[in-house]
């Protein structure tokens, strides 16, 4: 009888899966390839368990999708216009992977790397990754750590740290897609609240064309909770990208004790609250999920998951005038970004 060969990652080594558990019965799984969140199963008040993360059926399937499902992305999450920026009079070109632009760190970004496991137990897993000077065009020898932990009160806590030996823009985030209904429904029926007074309009390629815009009297006003479908595609800023795919500058201004956003399942039986030290949240309504390999149903459809990515505003290396901390990491400093997703059964 032939022994089945285990699936191997592109580097020829097996994928390493880590499982986090708490006493409440919540279970989170991850893999070291891309430091990727695979699954987040939340125990409900009625005794059922609800899968809240979009994901693939096997680790290998993650190689055949372009949605960055659950992955850790960097060095610079979101977009860098025209794949270049200027620092001290010198133009630095980074590797483009979305036309002439760079998205989520380039064609071989951190989502396509094996992160080394430093330690792991049922409460946490700590990954580390080294990136060489010039990797995807970015300057400096770079080392990052990503600590994912599961708390007793049902929070996925994510802590990114990084150091570099040359000045470099750094913007790490996790690209999880959530569906609090259990991944089978349209997330536009979720309710959403984002504590932000302004958002960043973008063109059809997701590139900012002007400065921040007040959310007042627009479809981007989520300061009071509303169903995502209520104002969907109401304005040209949405139509350009088939829905919401925009950064919101948060009122919390990096205070991780203040909520950045709340999301509610369409049946109101599950709430998720987001906290972050990052200045902005990118709200993406899953506009281009069509055809993405799915865990149980073949492929996902558009709008089946939403992302709330904690980060600097997109294209920040080209916009030092924006009202947020500097995205450039200096050799003597340490990058630190903390985000928590808190699941609260109702």
UniProtKB/TrEMBL annotation:
Belongs to the aldose epimerase family. This is Aldose 1-epimerase. Keywords: Carbohydrate metabolism, Isomerase. Pathway: Carbohydrate metabolism; hexose metabolism. Gene3D superfamilies: 2.70.98.10. It comes from the Bacteria. Its EC number is 5.1.3.3. It catalyses: alpha-D-glucose = beta-D-glucose. Pfam families: Aldose_epim. The lineage of its organism: Bacteria, Pseudomonadati, Pseudomonadota, Gammaproteobacteria, Enterobacterales.
